[in-house]
Design brief:
Layout: H1 3-13, E1 18-20, H2 24-30, E2 47-49, E3 55-61, E4 66-71, H3 78-121, E5 143-150, H4 158-169, E6 174-177, E7 182-188, H5 190-196, H6 206-224, E8 229-233, H7 239-260, E9 266-267, H8 273-279, H9 283-293, H10 297-300, H11 303-314, H12 319-326, H13 330-344, H14 351-366
Parallel strand pairs: 8-9
Antiparallel strand pairs: 1-4, 2-3, 3-4, 5-7, 5-8, 6-7
Helix pairs in contact: 3-7, 4-6, 5-6, 8-14, 9-14, 11-12, 11-14, 12-13
Length: about 375
């Protein structure tokens, strides 16, 4: 069952949907206590009464697993049970019919993803998309490219993921499977105009709008898809000419974001220029720079100091905004900055020293220390 329908049904019934991963040959013996006979077929909507009186409602069933929900007598009226049985069977038939209609599109997108992989592997980042993947010239207009990387083990169904995205964005998208647990998502650039509307006098930059869409998409997938994920987004592109180079850029963005900014799950290529440069420096030179840049790098790496400095830089070195963000008094923040200056010789209120400390913090995250 689709995850969106699963969550709605669980909310309606007030009970979780359970899954039993039973091979077909074992199912008969495992379900004997609910009256299943040899050769019987379990279908969506079937109901069984367990020995303790619990009503087991079958949500979906196939040759590999059974999804069900256990209800107590009286949770549903007889008419509600019949209505739910009819609804589940209609959903089951509709999902099978729709799945069969979507297979040609999924195969086409899968081949498109394989082609992108081949071009990246061969170093042909500027390769133009062949006409076979550009039916009707759909890739000759601008799309917003997102790269989605899932952390959870179970691979999601592509059709299910596509529906979730289309429902959330309220528009059609192109979903291109790449590597395992990785997808390219192409969304219409009209999202930027819709996202930017209705905000009064507040004007947001294109980068802020793109980040807002990406973070909203991440939050939706985390809750509806039941798994953590990472998303990178770039400026709108014309995929027919730039899709390979863009996928390469977004992959690099996710990799650098996860390496330098652990804990963040939305990664933006325009925010990692310094990280990209520092990543290219050999490890030995990074370590030498860290040791030479400050008299006491150990103080710079204390958890409280790290949190203070990262917040200070995120607030554009504004003392008042940083204190509010950290929920501390302004004088407490000034005391920490003065102590840091006294012990390390670096005053982050000065541009030169702020740059040095920012670089030290970034390098320390990725430098192997002996």
């Amino acid at each position: 069952m689709e995850l969106s329908w699963r969550s709605k049904l669980e909310s309606l019934l007030g009970a979780p949907i359970m899954t039993a991963g039973l091979p077909l040959g074992e199912r008969e013996s495992a379900w004997q206590d609910i009256g299943l006979k040899p050769g019987d077929r379990i279908r969506s909507g079937d109901r069984f009464r367990l020995p303790d009186g619990t009503i087991r409602l079958i949500v979906s069933a196939d040759d590999e697993k059974v999804e069900y929900v256990d209800l107590q007598p009286g949770d549903l009226t007889g008419r509600e049970e019949q209505l739910l049985e009819w609804l589940l069977r209609e959903l089951d038939r509709a999902s099978h019919a729709e799945g069969s209609r979507e297979r040609p599109l999924n195969r086409e997108m899968q081949r498109f993803g394989e082609w992108i992989q081949e071009q990246i592997g061969a170093g042909r980042l500027q390769a133009a998309v062949p006409d076979e993947f550009n039916a009707g010239g759909r890739l000759n207009i601008e799309w917003i490219p997102f790269l989605l990387l899932a952390d959870h083990a179970a691979r999601a169904n592509d059709a299910e993921l596509e529906k979730l995205l289309q429902t959330y964005l309220e528009t059609d998208v192109l979903l291109v499977p790449l590597r395992d647990q990785e997808w390219l998502i192409l969304a219409p650039d009209s999202l930027l105009y819709e996202e930017g509307g209705g905000r009064g006098d507040i004007e947001e930059t294109p980068e802020e709008l793109l980040e807002s869409v990406a973070r909203g998409m991440h939050d939706m997938l985390t809750s509806e898809w039941l798994g953590e994920n990472h998303i990178a987004v770039a400026h709108p592109i014309m995929p027919s000419a730039a899709v390979v180079d863009t996928v390469y850029l977004l992959r690099e963005t996710v990799a650098l974001g996860r390496r330098f900014h652990q804990g963040d799950t939305v990664h933006l290529p325009w925010n990692i220029h310094l990280e990209r440069l520092l990543n290219s420096i050999p490890d030995e030179q990074r370590l030498r720079f860290i040791e030479q840049a400050a008299s006491r790098t150990d103080l710079l790496l204390e958890p409280e100091i790290v949190t203070t400095l990262e917040t200070f830089f995120a607030m554009n070195c504004n003392v008042s905004d940083t204190a509010k963000k950290l929920f501390i008094h302004r004088n407490t923040l000034l005391y920490r900055l003065d102590k840091l200056k006294q012990d390390t010789g670096l005053d982050v209120r000065l541009f030169r020293d702020a740059v040095l400390v920012k670089i030290i913090l970034l390098l320390y995250k990725v430098t192997k220390r002996k």
